[in-house]
Amino acid sequence: MHMNELYITKQDHDRLREYLDGAAPSVNADADELRKFAAELDGRRVVDGREIAPAVVTMHSRVRLMDINTMESLVVTLVYPEEADLDQGKLSVLSTAGRALLGRSVGDVFEWRSPVRLRRLLVKELFYQPEAAGNYEQ
Question: Is the separation of the CB atoms in 44 and 58 below 8 Å?
Fold first, then answer.
């Protein structure tokens, strides 16, 4: 796998495209943002789930992120919007942070504009990735 290239499993790509293509107005994201995310998905390298590196964040991965400026650490699971619950650490893939996290690898740094400031986050640790655990149906 090449450095700085974002990967996505075929199953995650197909599910997310299907989700975006049928997204109802009730989804908490505007239409322009959904189109932008669809284009981002199509710009990622699609690979079979059995071939994705175990350090890549896929859907339902549980990761530790660290804010580079504050050294604050947070643990999140990347989920579909209907599963999102920040109190339980479940981050929607449609959130700006979730979109930026999908396809990143351990050691990657990415920027996320929170409501308060621009944050630089390091993917510090990957606790669980479904594909690495042999779960290709999640």
Answer: no
What's the predicted TM-score (pTM) here? 0.89
For residue range 75-118, list pLDDT tens digits in order: 999 999 889 998 999 999 988 899 999 999 999 999 887 778 88
User: Cα(43)–Cα(67) distance, rounded to whole angstroms?
Assistant: 26
Comparing CA positions, the residue from 60, 61, 65 lying closest to residue 119 is: 65
> Could you tell me the strand order of the sheet in which 62-67 lies?
90-92, 73-79, 62-67, 118-128, 109-113
* Domains parsed from the chain with CATH numbers: 7-128 (3.10.50.30)
